[in-house]
Amino acid sequence: MALSAANLEEALMALCKQAQVESFKEDYKDLEANRALSPNSSLLQVQPVLVDGIIRVGGWLTKAPGHFEEREINSRKRWRMAQALADMIWRRWHKEYLPTLTIRSKWNKEQRNLKEGDLTLLKTDDVPWSHWPLGRILKTFPGSDGIVCMAEVKTSNGTLMRPATKLCM
Q1: Is residue 80 within 8 Å of 90, Cβ to Cβ?
Q2: What contacts 95, CB < 8 A, 6 or more positions away?
Q3: 40-52 residues labelled b (16+ CB within 10 A) or e (exposed)
Q4: How far apart are alpha carbons 139 and 87 in whole angstroms?
Q5: What is the DSSP letter of 132?
Q6: Any residues with CB less than 8 A from the CB of 163 and at least 6 apart, and which?
Q7: CB within 10 Å: which end of the chain, N or C, has fewer?
């Protein structure tokens, strides 16, 4: 299913609104109720306005902007602010929205059960994954549903009992 430009725009606006509601909860409520912002509001300096459920900054536009000075166009400070905002949006999008798009097939699709003779990595929390020990399954212990929940694993350091969640095939 392909998304149209309208679908993407709608999703972007929903994301923007959700981020604003979470970040500026009290200010959003005040703007929604047409009340003045509290004196210690961080939005006070940017003259926020609520338009279609989205906080817009700069107040209401009363006339079209005039000409700009060359120094205003090339302002390094404005560029840094724009970059910081873009970085913030990217981080939040990457952290909050992008994971909702992934399909978690690991939990929806049947995987092969562990069996005797399988070569596995033993997941240990105190070392990085590149240093996890290698082992061979000697014996499996299935649960009532038939899926292996424990295994006896032989490593170079001896034989260990490990839960299946700590074994990587």
Answers
A1: no
A2: none
A3: ebebeeeebebee
A4: 51
A5: P
A6: 149, 150
A7: N
- Per-residue pLDDT tens digits of the chain, which is 169 residues long: 676 777 878 888 888 888 888 888 888 888 888 888 888 887 777 777 888 888 877 655 444 444 445 455 556 667 776 777 777 887 787 777 767 766 555 566 677 888 899 999 888 888 887 788 999 999 999 989 888 889 999 999 999 999 988 888 7
One-letter identity of residue 35: R
**CA separation for the pair 114, 141 (Å, rounded):** 10
CA distances (Å), origin 169, targets 76, 140, 153, 166: 52, 14, 12, 10
Domains for the chain: give ranges and CATH numbers: 5-60+69-101 (no CATH), 110-168 (2.30.30)
Token pair 């536009």 in the structure block, residue: 61
Separation CA 3–CA 46 (nearest Å): 34
Span 84-116, pLDDT tens digits: 777 788 778 777 776 776 655 556 667 788 889
The 8-class DSSP code of residue 9 comes to: H
